[in-house]
Design goal:
- The protein is an alpha+beta fold and 458 residues long.
- The chain is built from 7 helices and 19 strands.
- The protein has one domain (1-189, 292-439).
- The strands form 3 sheets. The protein has a 15-stranded mixed beta sheet that branches.
- A hairpin with a 4-residue loop joins β9 and β10.
């Protein structure tokens, strides 16, 4: 009787959201537990409108429901189909199955390429499996990395409207179709992004799974990552460069170029968890989590069935809703593994964070972070494109001119990374246009990802 009452209360909780920023980690866990056995009452092709919103609450993280659910909502249910990573990644996973291990400090050892561990074997509540899941995340299928020609960082305040903001009429109004709904635009930052993977490359078995056999510019490197800004004028030329070493125990080398100072400065680990140029993002939050696994404690929470934009019908992200924070797209039901992240550093701004990671693709669709008082602070929602779809290939021929992406990449690529600060009532939408997963041209890469080139302010 007690168990029946408990389940009834949890189910009621899933239907009756609390005030958004009053949520605690316990509330998130309660939503997971309440809906563990939920079965969808919708089918492929359905469009869920406001009058039927209760149908998607068991599959929409409770903290995100007030963003997803509103009068005028249109959640189109569309199965994502086969999102299996490329054969090269599958082959490496099979070849090196069972060889990777976790050291006593949580470091990954004896790893070469592919997915390090099988999540089907993980036990909820296990910290060791949490570390394994964190390394699975770190080494999900990423091919050679990403190139994004234009990233918008749009600050959207709750309420009001944005039709008069300059971005809506810029370049003949080519951006207006992406930003429907309400919300007040406070600022829009623009710039390119590039990440190149140098080691554990499943597509490079003939060179020891490394770029250039791990020699020269690629030596000892997991990846290099460039984030630049070209507008507005007061930050134009600002750029950040991160060098992640292949040694999991070695701290990143990170630099920033600040045009007003005309110099490159090293970035401390603390800076990477600070607000990025006033946005609601941090460098560490990119992708959902972009930090070093050993700087955090991990716990494997379990699995859930979750609606996600796993295979966008749009070439570029389209936003709508009362505050312009929601995604107007196809939503697929996906199995996700849930990972709890707890920073080791006492001065880290978050007390903990949850990541929801697709069992098949290894990509993150949803995340949330709690402040030091244990209250909900931010939620992230990410939309994904599939590299084999015409709409993804449209990046190469569309207005934003992406680099060519090899056919057969079978890559789930982020299309947008959107974070809502529920305490501050502001979102930072980060749509990415001109997306590609280009082959690695080492000569070209050196010109972008070398600290000596940061001052050129590309």
């Amino acid at each position: 009787m007690k168990n029946s009452l408990r389940l009834a209360l949890l189910a009621a909780f899933a239907v009756q959201p609390l005030v958004s920023n009053a949520y605690t980690p316990e509330d998130h866990l309660a939503w997971i537990k309440a809906n563990a056995d939920a079965q969808p009452q919708f089918v492929d092709g359905d469009t869920i409108t406001f009058d039927k919103a209760d149908l998607i609450k068991p599959f929409t993280p409770v903290e995100y429901q007030e963003i997803q659910i509103f009068d005028g909502m249109e959640v189109k249910i569309k199965d994502a189909g086969d999102l299996t990573p490329a054969p090269a990644y599958q082959a490496a996973t099979e070849k090196f199955k069972g060889t990777a291990t976790i050291a006593s400090d949580g470091a990954l050892e004896n790893y070469t390429a592919g997915r390090p561990f099988d999540p089907a074997t993980f036990t909820p509540g296990s910290k060791e499996d949490g570390s394994k899941m964190a390394w699975n995340w770190n080494f999900r299928w990423q091919l050679a990395g990403l190139s994004v020609g234009e990233v918008h960082w749009v600050w959207v305040r709750e309420g009001g409207e944005h039709s008069g903001h300059e971005v809506m009429s810029q370049d003949g109004g080519k951006y207006a179709k992406f930003y429907e709904g309400g919300g007040s635009f406070e600022r829009v930052l623009t710039g390119p992004y590039r990440r190149v993977m140098f080691s554990h490359r499943s597509d490079l078995p003939d060179t020891n799974y490394k770029v250039n056999n791990g020699e020269g510019f690629a030596k000892g490197t997991e990846f290099r990552e460039y984030t630049g800004f070209t507008s507005p004028f007061d930050i134009a030329g600002t750029a950040f460069l991160i060098l992640r070493y292949d040694d999991p125990r070695k701290s990143d080398d990170s630099w920033a170029y600040i045009p007003s100072l005309r110099r490159v400065r090293r970035i401390s680990v603390e800076v990477k968890s600070d607000s990025l140029l006033g946005t609601d993002h941090t460098l560490e939050d990119f992708y959902c989590f972009n930090g070093r696994p050993l700087e955090h404690e991990w716990e494997y929470v379990g699995t859930a069935k979750e609606l996600a934009v796993a295979r966008s019908r749009n070439t570029d992200a389209v936003y709508y809703g009362p505050n312009g924070w929601a995604m107007k797209d196809d939503w697929a039901l996906r199995q996700v593994d849930i990972l709890k992240q707890t920073p080791k550093r006492s001065n880290h701004p978050y007390s903990l964070k949850y990541l929801h990671i697709d069992r098949v693709t290894g990509e993150c669709y949803y995340s949330n972070a709690f402040d030091k008082a244990g209250k909900l602070w931010k939620v992230w929602q990410l939309s994904k494109s599939w590299s084999e779809d015409p709409q993804f290939q449209g990046h190469q021929t569309g207005a934003f001119k992406a680099k060519p992406t090899p056919a057969g990449t079978q890559f789930s690529v982020f299309q947008s990374i959107n974070v809502i600060d529920l305490q501050n009532k502001r979102g930072t939408l980060v749509p990415c246009r001109g997306i590609a997963a280009p082959a690695t041209d080492l000569n070209e890469v050196k010109k972008i990802l070398d600290v000596n080139y940061l001052t050129e302010g590309r």
